[in-house]
Every structure is written in C-alpha cells, then in structure tokens.
Amino acid sequence: xxxxxxxxxxxxxxxxxxxxxxxxxxxxxxxxxxxxxxxxxxxxxxxxxxxx
Length: 52
Prior knowledge:
Elements: H1 10-22, E1 26-32, E2 35-41
Antiparallel strand pairs: 1-2
C-alpha cells in the first residue's frame, strides 16, 4: 500500500458518486505499489433502474 493516497481526480470522484449515490453501492479503491485495486458492489435491484 502506498504511504499517501493520491488526490482524487475527476474519474475517481465520478465513480464514487455514481456508485454510492445513484446505485446505492459500495466502492473501495486502494492504491498499491503494483497498481490500483478496485472493488465495486452494486445491489442487483439497482441495475437497470431508471429515474422517473
């Protein structure tokens, strides 16, 4: 794991807001020496739903 996490860029913020707010999911992003490790969990009920 890196000692300090890089600043969140536009893409990271967009992913986090979309997954957690729009899809009621969870996002875990880890910045490791070998690269980025990302785990995304989205409830099945959220998939394919459209806002009215």
